[in-house]
Specification:
With 466 residues, the chain is an alpha+beta fold. 19% of the residues lie in helices and 35% in strands. Strand 24 and strand 25 form a beta hairpin. Helix 3 packs antiparallel against helix 4. The termini are far apart.
């Protein structure tokens, strides 16, 4: 058999066929990748437009109300029956309640309640007003106020139900079955009747502490009609003075501001009523700062409330509003104003710095400088072109000045021109997020200027790419 010769087989390499479209696509992809890399690796500088505004300070507080409160205890044992409505004033020696030793009066009260009697227009108007006030002021996080409202309505109903009984109470005394069994409890002095106790009645205001404001620690005992009481048990309390106060927790700086005003206007959020309170700063037993606001009216409106929500109405400082993150502190050279002159195009500020030629002779060199503030005959000059130890000459004089003194300014970086330019600011007021600064100052900002929102992300003369 003939042997077949096999030659060397070489693989044919297909030449790379590049066209203009592929090259163009590759260039675009490379450009996009570079842009993405630069975007994520470069510093992001965000601008903030300065506008006129004011600080919305936290002027809403929940305070604790303190009044002249006297707890009245029972001299008898038996069933308690209230005849005075809670939150209304009872005169001295006027009937507040009775203590029925046998329970016979309770049967008569129930008989009176079964009799049909239509409410008058005035009665209906009072109940409607109470319901509207509760609905308008109700807050879900303050559910305990629902119980206060419940007892308020019960007090109103009790007043209407016992109206006839009160009119014929003298006749009941003559009933031989009730003779000596019903003990009348009259108010020992004039005051607002309250049917609850909470332990704050005897507390000293100067001993106030943060724990007093914790709702989970607050316990209020409601004194219930027709319940059995023992001799010595509290049966009601009287608020006897129109003068009362509210204590609120505040920061020390805020307390000093309020103390300087002496009197502050207060809005009660419960009914939007406004009144003036006398300011007194207290140091609590926990070494924290509190403000006592004393009032001489409206006590009866809040007689049943221990915690009262209020708003302090103060004059808000108005100016240019900037975020605190924009504010930076910068150091400058202090140079006497007499050493700054005009040069260059005639409108440029600068100084005459001493320089030396190769032969050792001194010649003055005009160095442009930027002025950032003037204070007590000195300019604040940046250190871009000058150094500590430089000697400058006073124009048209032989006097010299060696740069050594420095000072700091508070300011922001203006970016209107596409680069970072420091501008001094004068802070009028400040909270945790924003500052109100003086507008239209000589070396400062004006409304609608753009500044760097984050001062830490920028340096002097940085160009803004965004």
């Amino acid at each position: 058999m003939a042997t077949q010769n096999k030659g060397n087989i070489r693989k044919y390499k297909k030449p790379l066929n590049l066209n203009i479209g592929m090259i163009f696509f590759a260039v675009i992809m490379i450009y996009i990748i570079i842009c993405i890399f630069m975007y994520f690796s470069s510093k992001r500088i965000y601008g903030y437009q300065v506008r006129i505004g004011s600080l919305s300070e936290t002027n809403v507080y929940e305070g604790i109300a303190f009044r002249d409160e006297t707890i009245v205890t029972s001299e008898y044992s038996g069933y308690i029956n209230y005849f005075a409505r809670e939150g209304e004033k009872a005169g001295c020696n006027k009937l507040v309640c009775t203590v029925d030793e046998t329970g016979s009066l309770q049967e008569l009260v129930q008989g009176e309640q079964k009799s049909e009697e239509l409410l008058s227009e005035k009665d209906l108007s009072e109940i409607k007003s109470e319901v509207k006030n509760f609905i308008s002021s109700y807050q879900e996080n303050n559910f305990h106020s629902t119980y206060d409202f419940k007892f308020l309505i019960e007090g109103s109903v009790l007043k209407y139900a016992n109206r006839n009984l009160l009119n014929s109470l003298n006749e009941l005394y003559s009933n031989t079955e009730l003779n000596g069994a019903i003990n009348v409890c009259n108010a020992p002095k004039s005051g607002i009747v309250i049917y609850s106790i909470d332990g704050f009645e005897d507390r000293e205001i100067n001993e106030i502490c943060e724990d007093w404001f914790l709702k989970e620690n607050y316990e209020k005992t409601q004194l219930i009609n027709n319940e059995i009481v023992e001799k010595g048990d509290p049966i009601y309390k009287l608020s006897t003075e129109e003068k009362w106060c509210i204590v609120i927790p505040v920061e020390e700086g805020r307390a000093k501001e309020l103390e300087e005003e002496e009197y502050v206007k207060v809005r009660f959020l419960k009914n939007q009523y406004e009144s003036w309170g006398e300011v007194e700063v207290l140091n609590g037993s926990d070494q924290k700062t509190y403000v006592k606001l004393t009032f001489t009216n409206s006590m009866i409106t809040f007689a049943t409330d221990r915690f009262v929500d209020i708003e302090l109405i103060t004059d808000a400082e108005t100016g240019l509003k900037v975020p605190n993150s924009s504010i930076v502190e910068k150091e400058f050279f202090l140079i006497p104003t007499a050493y700054v002159t005009k040069g260059g195009n005639g409108n440029e500020n600068g100084v005459l710095r001493e320089t030396y030629n190769e032969d050792g002779s001194m010649i003055p060199e005009f160095v442009p400088v930027s002025i950032y503030n003037e204070e007590e005959g000195e300019y604040y000059i940046d250190d871009a072109s000058l150094r500590i130890g430089d000697t400058i000459d006073m124009p048209d004089s032989t006097e010299k000045f060696t740069i050594a003194k420095s000072g700091t300014l508070i300011g922001v970086y203006n970016i209107n021109k596409g680069y970072a330019d420091f501008k001094q600011i004068q802070i009028l007021n400040q909270n945790d997020e924003y500052a109100i600064i003086q507008s239209n100052t000589k070396y400062g900002l004006v409304a609608y200027d753009y500044i760097a929102q984050d001062a830490e992300s920028i340096n002097d003369n940085d160009f803004i790419n965004d």
